[in-house]
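[[Per-residue structure]]
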Amino acid sequence: MSRNVLNVPEVCLVSYRTNMEKEFQHHLSRMPENSAIKQQKLPAHRLHFSNQAIFTIFFATGAFCFCIGIILLLSAWKVQEIEINYTNICEDCAKMRENALNFDKQCTCSIPFNLQKTMKGDVYMYYKLYGFYQNLYRYVLSRSHNQLMGKDVRDVKDCAPFKVTSNKIPIAPCGAIANSMFNDTIILSYIRSTSEHIQVPMLKTGLTWWTDKYVKFQNPSFRNLSDHFVGTEKPPYWQEPIYELDTSDPGNNGFLNDDFIVWMRTAAFPTFKKLYRRLYRVKYFSDGLPAGNYTFDISYNFPVTKFQGEKAVILSTLTWNGGSSIFLGLAYTVTGVFLWMSSFALMAIQGKMRKKKLSHRR
């Protein structure tokens, strides 16, 4: 009597198949039922744009960007601006400031200029620096947020290399940013006649962002501010302590000083301008700055010649979209032209493809 005997490989194969079937059934038992409650089925739609729709979208978007760019450029060109670089004009003061031993000596220079057209509306004064790198990594980190928010004026742990003095006394405000604060004094005078020089009234508040003035910077106290800085020293390059920046206005003194806050917001590029003053529109200046002769009286304190930098002062008006920068307008205009060229290129390619299809059919 014959017997069917399975060899060893066949036995292993049967065993493997049996185990796989059991495992598959086990996994099937764990799967939820294919119902609307247990299986979520989301509707999906695949967009299919026609050639005409694509051409319309490209052309319409390009027309929109081009029109917005032209509007922004025209608005920027309406801004009235005058810039005076006084690095070489105040050459004697610049040479004196190169010697650190002259830090306590005063040096002033006068820069006459003529304003040919009336600068109507609000007028803003800026100082501009060339070749000053506020974007260096160690420079940006050299500050104490706890100190600037008035929580602990002696917290200087993140302020290297300007943490403490040679006598180990904490510096307030500490850090490289605060120590290098711009400290030139710029006064604008209107020469109404040869015998009448009128100092143009300028406001030194309202220059900062709201979040900076009321969130990021706070004084330890509004009363007896100097008492809260006992046991600290002013930065090495400063001429007066932090609590004497503006003694006439407690809301603009200490860490809340607008000039200090504006400087502490570091610039991204080595050439930058920062808001310094804004015109107080009263009396002769109710409509703006009238045309005529003016002078800038500058107390030169901030040295720039050692690192081959330059300084300038700017008077400028503003429009609804900001200052005289044409970058945004050019960006929109170039984008619009690029989209138009792309739409025409796509139309040409589509025309060639259509001709090829017609020739193949024939």
